[in-house]
């Protein structure tokens, strides 16, 4: 877990450095629109997934994910768990 945390902290620092160098954050920040590619469900249905990360005081604190039948992830989307497998290990908790 420590290596994962170190890697995530490194990614977070790189992103912060990029933003500080290229953007003057004086107002809202918006993501450019893109076309989502759906994932196929077991019964042939299509789902769109959004994966994000939480930060607390500028440090990575965890992940979140939402899923929807629509490409737009909005209030109709459902929260889903994010599971991380390390080196082929399974969590026994």
Could you provide a short overview of the structure?
With 93 residues, the protein is α+β, with helices and mostly antiparallel strands. It contains one helix and four strands. The model has no long low-confidence stretch (mean pLDDT 79).
Would you kindly provide a written description of the structure presented here, covering whatever features stand out?
The structure is a single chain. The protein is of the alpha+beta class and 93 residues long. The protein has one domain. The protein is 23% helix and 28% strand. Strands 1-2-3-4 form a four-stranded antiparallel sheet. A hairpin with a 2-residue loop joins strand 2 (46-56) and strand 3. The mean pLDDT is 79.
Structural class: alpha+beta
Amino-to-carboxy terminus distance: 15 Å
The gross shape turns out to be flat
Number of beta strands: 4
Could you say how many structural domains there are in total? 1
Topology at a glance:
Layout: H1 2-22, E1 39-40, E2 46-56, E3 59-68, E4 78-80
Antiparallel strand pairs: 1-2, 2-3, 3-4
Keywords:
28% strand; alpha+beta; 23% helix; 1 helix; 93 residues; 4 strands
């Amino acid at each position: 877990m420590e290596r994962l945390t170190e890697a995530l902290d490194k990614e977070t620092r790189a992103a912060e450095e990029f933003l500080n160098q290229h953007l003057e954050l004086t107002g809202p920040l918006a993501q450019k629109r893109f076309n989502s590619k759906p994932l196929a469900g077991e019964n042939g249905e299509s789902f769109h997934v959004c994966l994000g990360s939480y930060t607390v005081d500028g440090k990575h604190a965890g992940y979140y994910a939402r899923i929807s039948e629509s490409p737009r992830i909005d209030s109709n989307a459902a929260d889903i768990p994010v599971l991380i497998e390390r080196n082929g290990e399974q969590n026994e908790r």
